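pinned: reference chain
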Amino acid sequence: MSETVRIADQLKRAFAGDAWHGPALMEILADVNAATAAARPIPNAHTIWELTLHVATWDTAVLQRIGGEAASPTDEENFPKIKDASESAWRGAVATLQRRHQELLQAISDMPDSRLTERVPGEDYDFYFMLHGAVQHALYHAGQIVLLKRAQG
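pinned: its structure tokens
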């Protein structure tokens, strides 16, 4: 098994399940509805919805970087404001996250190991560092979402 396939497997586990540490991001989001996602139980903290869109934004940025772009989300893209807090809009946000994540997993799996030591466009680190960072990023925000859910009771 190639190293990129192993990294993609770790990202898949962090995102979808069968992770060593416990529940993955999508397992944590499975019972979240729009009201819970939009709530701000901790003042000045991001909402579950904002964090969900943030992870999708960074999956897209990593995907663009793999494609050769020097992608960096704007502040507005990084943590977008929720304009429609309906249940259908929430389900759309989750579907977007799932779609972007699947695209990223495929790109990583298709990537030759030889690219892992290449510098990421516009950054001072290599793809190996960035891809492991993508796994860490998903888990970090999954932990935040668990705390936000607990804060709501």
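why pinned: The longest helix spans residues 127-151. Residues 54 and 78 are 5 Å apart (CA to CA).
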